[in-house]
Specification:
The complex is a heterodimer of chains A (220) and B (477).
Chain A lengths: L2 H13 L11 H4 L5 H13 L4 E5 L4 H12 L3 E4 L4 H8 L7 E4 L8 H6 L3 E4 L3 E3 L5 E3 L15 E7 L3 E2 L2 H8 L8 E5 L4 E2 L7 E2 L6 E7 L4
Parallel strand pairs in A: 1-12, 2-3, 2-4, 4-7, 5-8, 7-12
Antiparallel strand pairs in A: 5-6, 6-9, 10-11
Chain B lengths: L8 H9 L2 H21 L3 H20 L1 H15 L1 E6 L2 H14 L4 E4 L3 H6 L1 H7 L3 E4 L2 H8 L16 H11 L9 H18 L2 E4 L3 E3 L4 E6 L3 H7 L3 E7 L3 E2 L2 H16 L6 E5 L13 E7 L3 H5 L15 H4 L2 H6 L10 H12 L5 H4 L7 H5 L6 H13 L16 H15 L1 H14 L10 H5 L12 H7 L6
Parallel strand pairs in B: 1-10, 2-3, 2-4, 4-7, 5-8, 7-10
Antiparallel strand pairs in B: 5-6, 6-9
Helix pairs in contact in B: 2-12, 3-12, 16-19, 20-21
Classes of the chains: A alpha/beta (220), B alpha/beta (477).
Chain lengths: 220, 477
């Protein structure tokens, strides 16, 4: 126990005011509601407004849609988490030749330079989406490392339409993040951007320059 | 006579007003931000409900602050975050230096943090041989010129792209001159990605700290916050002690109103929740996370029931965007880490209402700041309260420097005022002279001069109000 801690908490306690806590009326958050069939469209609109690109797919054809996109773009490699749910589906049926799948299966220290300069794109799954504003929810971890969605210049993410929540608030509750958060969790709404020079929007400042969402329609 | 070392806002404000380039840069930026914010709140009922909810969340957090801090500390520690406490900026700087030295770290790459500005951390570390590099594009731009932020959200807002183009071409190795914003951004990207890759440690601020989960929340668009916190092996975070909220659910509405109030965005590019360092099986992320919780006068502000509202602030900057004074003089004129209306009430409470007396009067009390504040901090009321504190020694008040803003000339003016108002005969004589001969007073006379320097001299009425009312037949006036 440091002296500073004791002194600070002591001062705060000495002047803590007792009294009823103000009520929290969350009606304004509950009003934000869309039928599940409309959420994907709303998410898409919000994210396209900040330059996110979308690829439409079905539960059966999404790895093929993704592969075709990679070939079209001429990526030499695609970094991915081989043990993640989405990653293992991708690897199971990845045709030889063209874009190579590159597993993120070692500690970053073992290939930091290559990660920063030798990777064309990174692929991750998502644990959900947010309809109100547009946004992807990610839970990086052992299967999908944290830098997978950050360092490669292009980030491709797979999102299932059935996992899109109304709001960030609703998503936090549904995913139980308030009870047990993973070491790192994220919401991403678009490619990296800045307006620090004369309020002019520029994309791709530190993180990915492009964000591509493979939107899997699993509602049918 | 003024308080010792008094910093005169009027002097720096007057200087800023003479800079047409600066005024144009701010005017354009603030107009844009006001319009964008407005577009994010089309429904006044939704806005007010969200403000009420956000205010209630922040008020509850403050009412429970000591318990929440303890709960947060316990949970964060369980998660593997090492928590440190600092009463002063000096202590916080020493703590950070100690952590860096224990790891042999020589380079630190920084995400945006106003608390680190408060600590003057960069200067301190440079003096001790550690390179501290700002990575937020705006912060990077001003660090190249050795400047401080002029806005808490958009630190380089006082510069236009021509100025930045010139600066980059002179200060970045092998850079060519260009005014293209995409090219300028790409130049900074190239320099800074190399720095992220090589840095021994990363530093960040904290937007919200969640007590129930021990989580640090970071709001950003650029990705430099994620780079600074996830690429280097060591992550150090700094935060003011007021940042803690009870639950993660509390964060959602605060985040929503923060981004919309600040830059008129419904959501930022990244919302980053950091709960633990690299865990078993993880392949990246920092090996260690340290958090420094800073007081620096906050516990003293906390002690006053009215002034405590100052600590509700979520640092969105909407008050400065809407402030007619800030828009005209810009952030640097305040000579304070936090400029604009929130800075006007925060800075005097930390540094003393005497030395910052002039700042308390640099306001028209138009009320715009209070009207747009997402957590409804009554900034104008607090400003008025602090003006009183500056000249009164109220017993029970814990305000730093209370009463030290009193000057003998002001004292005498009020004494004469009181004397005249308590003696009807004297009052009549003075007002009779003022109405008959006031017009003849030269514009350059003492006291009148302060007004007439930039305005025409007011002409007093020919007869006093008392005389006119008496003439209407009202007795006893």
């Amino acid at each position: 126990m440091s002296d500073a801690r004791t002194a600070i908490l002591g001062r705060l306690r000495a002047s803590s005011q007792v009294g009823p806590l103000p009520d929290l009326d969350t009606a304004v958050l509950e009003r934000r509601h869309w039928p599940i069939s409309e959420r994907a469209e709303r998410l898409r609109k919000g994210m396209e407004a900040v330059h996110t690109e979308f690829l439409d797919a079905t539960p059966a054809d999404w790895p093929g849609v993704l592969r075709a996109f990679c070939d079209r773009e001429g990526f030499k490699n695609l970094l991915f988490g081989p043990t993640s749910e989405a990653g293992s589906i991708l690897a199971a049926d990845w045709p030889a030749g063209g874009t190579q799948l590159m597993p993120y299966d070692r500690p970053v220290e073992a290939f930091k330079d290559e990660l920063f300069t030798g990777v064309d794109a990174g692929f991750t799954g998502t644990v959900g989406g947010v309809a109100e504003t547009g946004g992807l929810l990610l839970m990086p971890g052992p299967a999908e490392p944290r830098l997978l969605s950050l360092v490669p210049p292009i980030h491709i993410a797979m999102l299932k339409a059935s996992t899109i929540h109304d709001t960030f608030w609703a998503a936090i509750k549904a995913l139980g993040w308030g009870r047990a958060l993973p070491p790192n969790a994220l919401m991403i709404s678009g490619p990296s951007k800045t307006a620090d020079i004369e309020q002019t929007l520029a994309y791709g400042v530190h993180g990915p320059k492009r964000l591509i969402v493979v939107l899997v329609n699993d509602l049918a | 006579m003024h308080a010792e070392n008094e910093i005169l806002f009027r002097d720096s404000a007057a200087k800023a007003l003479l800079d047409p380039q600066l005024r144009a840069n701010f005017r354009r930026a603030m107009d844009g931000l006001i319009t964008k914010r407005k577009a994010q709140f089309p429904d006044p009922r939704d806005l007010q409900d969200l403000r009420d909810l956000s205010t209630a969340i922040r008020s509850r957090s403050l009412l429970n602050l000591p318990s929440l801090l303890e709960q947060f500390e316990a949970q964060a520690t369980r998660n593997g975050i090492q928590v440190h406490w600092a009463e002063t900026c000096d202590q916080a700087n020493e703590l950070i230096l100690g952590i860096l030295r224990s790891k042999g770290a020589k380079t630190l790459v920084k995400g945006k943090s106003m608390v680190s500005e408060e600590m003057h951390l960069n200067d301190f570390l440079e003096k001790h041989g550690i390179e501290a590099l700002e990575s937020d594009l705006g912060e990077y731009i001003i660090q190249l010129d050795g400047e401080t932020p002029s806005h808490i959200i958009m630190p380089a807002i006082h510069k236009n792209k021509d100025q930045i183009a010139r600066q980059f071409s002179q200060k970045i190795k092998d850079a060519k001159y260009t005014e293209d914003v995409d090219e300028l951004t790409a130049m900074a990207r190239k320099v800074l990605r190399q720095k992220f890759l090589e840095a021994d440690a990363g530093l960040s601020g904290v937007n919200f700290a969640v007590a129930e989960t021990g989580t640090l929340c970071l709001v950003e668009n650029e990705g430099n916050g994620r780079m600074s916190t996830h690429v280097p092996p060591l992550h150090i975070a700094v935060m003011g002690l007021e940042k803690v909220v009870a639950t993660l659910e509390d964060v959602a509405p605060l985040y929503s109103i923060l981004t919309r109030s600040a830059t008129g965005q419904p959501v930022t590019t990244y919302f980053n929740l950091i709960t633990a360092p690299r865990g078993a099986g993880e392949k990246d992320g920092p090996q260690e996370i340290h958090l420094v919780i800073l007081d620096n006068g906050r516990s003293n502000i906390y002690a006053d029931p009215q002034l405590q509202a100052t600590l509700r602030c979520i640092r969105c900057g909407a008050c400065m965007n809407h402030c007619p004074v800030y828009t005209r003089v810009g952030g640097h004129a305040y000579e304070a880490v936090y400029p604009g209306p929130i800075g006007k009430i925060l800075t005097p409470q930390v540094e003393g209402v005497g030395v910052r007396h002039d700042l308390l009067h640099g306001s028209s009390l138009c009320g715009a700041c209070g009207e747009v504040c997402p957590v409804q901090i009554p900034i104008p009321e607090i400003l008025v309260r602090l003006r009183r504190e500056a000249t009164h020694q109220d017993p029970g008040s814990q305000v730093v420097g209370k009463g030290t803003g009193r000057t003998s000339s002001e004292d005498w003016a009020w004494r004469l005022w009181a004397m005249a108002n308590k003696r009807p005969g004297l009052y009549r004589i003075i007002t009779w002279f003022a109405t008959r001969f006031g017009k003849a007073l030269p514009a350059g006379a003492p006291l009148i001069k302060d007004w007439t320097r930039t305005r025409t001299k007011p002409v007093p009425a020919h007869r006093t109000l008392n005389e006119r009312v008496r003439a209407k037949g009202v007795p006893h006036v």
